[in-house]
Amino acid sequence: MFKELHTMSCHKKSYITTPIYYVNDIAHIGHAYTTIIADTLARYSRMSGLDTFFLTGTDEHGQKIEEAAKARGKSTQAYADEISATFKNLWDDFDISYDKFIRTTDADHMKGVQKAFSIMHENGDIYKDTYKGHYCISCETFFPAIQLVDDEFCPECGKSTTIVEEESYFFKLSKYEDRLLKYYEEHPNFILPKSKRNEVIRFVEGGLQDLSITRTSFDWGVKLPEEMDDPKHVMYVWLDALMNYVTALGYGTDEANMDYWPARVQLIGKDILRFHAIYWPAFLMSLDLPLPTHIAAHGWWTRDGEKMSKSKGNVVNPREVANAYGLDNFRYFMLREVPFGGDGDFSQKALIDRINSDLGNDLGNLLNRLIGMSGKYFNGTVDSAHVSKYYQAELDEVHAALDTLEPLLFDMQIHRYLEELWRPLTVANKAIDMYQPWTLMKEGREEEAMALNGLIAAILAKVSIMLSPVMPEVCKKISNALHFTIDNASWNSMVKDTKLLETFTLEKIDPLFPRIEEPLLEQAEPVDVKEKEKAPKKEAPKEEKKEEGIALIGIDQFFQTSLKVGTVVKAEEVPKSKKLLLLQVDIGEDAPRQVVAGIKEWYSAEDMLNTQVCVVANLKPAKLMGLKSEGMLLAAKDENGLCMIRPEKPKTSGTPIG
């Protein structure tokens, strides 16, 4: 499988992009997560011999930037320069291997956007009209009144919208509705993960409205092409921003690198999925450009189970984490901890556990064992001449595991990539315990003991090659100790062609992952829940108490809760429990959620099967009677008993409630 997959892509170009980050604030852990994933894909692509172009950058136009600059008493360009530099400096410090850092204020970018506008207009896809609607400055998005909360608030961020009425140019998005649906059907892996694909399809099936793509109420943006003779208009931020992926390659100017298009993977956060999976492909269709292979949308990060916010003081600064725990350790944790597409939770405890267990015990300790054995028995020499004679079964198991890796990486199952990459390490550690080199030496079986050392060295070399896109510096230390270089030649030789290391003398190096006993950063919140309970509770100010006894919350707090329609696809009683039912609930994800519900006194398993329920989908998993529960059902209870809250009419599983 490994050889077949790579042969198909051999000698081709590989183009990897991050979103361009909006310069309304400095980089946070979510930005770092996206960029580290993209860097990993780019590093692997280069190592495997592909001509690779990796793009990142900043999005600097729009009303929100203009207002942020004014609030700080700076010119808009100066403010954009300042924030853009913080992103670029962080990626440089993180040794992100980008080939171009684009800014939407770059002259070549603006020329390319103007060319795209002209072509779309010539193709009959752009027309002028008047737009009146609710506009959210924070999201840079118009929303129909029916989508608003309480007739005013943005359904995405919860902030107040503004009614805007102005002349605008529109893109005929509705024209591409059927063509988009057909493309999604014919290219099932275009949107990853597949649960996000279903979300996009449902949205498009609901009908697309033409898209306002210019504004006249502010100046900070790309002007229309001169031939339009309409200087009061600037292009709407999403048309401007999305075009960066091709203007970075020279579209509209020199076209120098357009042979890298279409992109292999375009990485985004799930909050901008609609723009990239609907608007962007429609723009490309209008321009008669091919679509990217994958649009891959990842989830959000919380900290210790709570949403991050400046007011709570719990925002994770990626630079601080990398400085405290090591950049490669941070990279490994981010990519291993959470399945791509799901939301992740950052905690120092989880990070420390990954460093001490996965990295320290499994990888670092294996290298220490090899250095110790080879030094004690063979003066540090490692010879692989007889590895196949004694340990072919172990080699076969290792190579079988390595064969599965590349597809996982580019299907965005990166946590699985790392999980499977650890299988060879398990083989190596088990081999030492099973064959016991100290016993082999006592029995005079030196050739067999040397072959065992050769096996361990080969496994470490192969793992370090495949791990190097995730942990480049750590793997460079391992390869230096084993006297080889990680590059396309070693990838071809040891991974693709399954060869072993030549005879060499091991270098002694310091332990790669010293054990960490205590958190290295100041905690944002007390970690010990019992200590929290002991702490004196502050009484709420009397003036905030309401006669009704209801604690009021803000719209931002409300939107932290994710409510979805679910369909119960399996239901059974929990043995020895008078209250609990064990349910499998489809909420539109790749697999049903397991929910343990205390409703057995009012509903039997048969009552619940194939019915629809309302699910709180973003609760932290909990355990009830040893069973994992991944959500909570909404119900109402009074003196007459309990009843489930259900949709009035059947709805598609996963439909948001709000």
From TrEMBL:
A GO molecular-function descriptor: methionine-tRNA ligase activity
Keyword tRNA-binding annotated: yes
EC class: ligase
Residue ranges with Basic and acidic residues bias: 527-546
PROSITE patterns registered for this protein in UniProt: TRBD
CC cofactor: Zn(2+)
Compartments (UniProt record): Cytoplasm
Domain of life, source organism: Bacteria
Domain TRNA-binding as annotated: residue spans: 557-658
Cofactor: record remark: Binds 1 zinc ion per subunit.
Pfam family, one: tRNA_bind
Main location: cytoplasm
Entry EC number(s): 6.1.1.10
Region (Disordered): 524-546
Reactions catalysed: tRNA(Met) + L-methionine + ATP = L-methionyl-tRNA(Met) + AMP + diphosphate
Assembly with partners or alone: Homodimer.
Protein name per UniProt: Methionine--tRNA ligase
Source organism (scientific name): Sulfurovum xiamenensis
GN (gene name): metG
